[in-house]
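Quick start: read one record
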Amino acid sequence: MSNKKIVLLAGKGVSTSIVFHALKNDFAIAAVILEEKESAWLFVKRRAKKLGWFTAIGQVLFQLLVVRILNLIAKHRKEEILENYQLNSSDIPDVLVKSVSSVNSPDCIQLLQSISPDAVVVNGTRIISKKVLSAIPSKFINMHAGITPAYRGVHGGYWALVNNDKENCGVTIHLVDAGVDTGNVLYQERIVKTAKDSFVTYPLLQLAAGLPWLKQAVNDALTSQLHPIATTATNSKQWYHPTIGQYIWHLATKAVC
């Protein structure tokens, strides 16, 4: 497949670096299109409009206080996961990086059309519009940190544990459509947490479990062998960041950290 090329369409962050390094030795990555992060204020306003100010502020407090503390506590565990699964989080070479204000911007569409990749791997972006998805004939493939359709949105592993639903604590590789993690499922894998794991290490475990299947899905796309699978989950729900109150309650009553 030396004549096939892919694009990584992503948000900035450690997971994007890990995905890039996992793919670069197996596939020709023509470019890494990185979107700028949305301003915190716009994010909070948008979330408050949907869920209410009380919930939105509780989510911000969780990120500012709890997540920072958990990251300090989990520093060595995160390093252990990176080492055990050989996850490379080093910087992406600047020569491959193309910056856009948003995945839905005209600049992003122009870049995708000019590169004309055979497949697009999505990681950590905003919801991609129909206009972008239809701008090129390539398949868009995403690795989602949750088992869909039961755990769409964010932090699917955490919410599965909160619900005592270990069978649905895992990762999904799926085709991207204009919905929130509603595209056809290609592969799924479950994770098993240890006593050393918490909210901030579940995503790394999901990355490690999902990367082999992401590679397989990209290979399938490049060889026209994509075959969506049926899922066992009968319910579908979009999940959001926990509030500080929710996290403390679930820690106290269910020992989910």
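The chain has one domain: 5-254.
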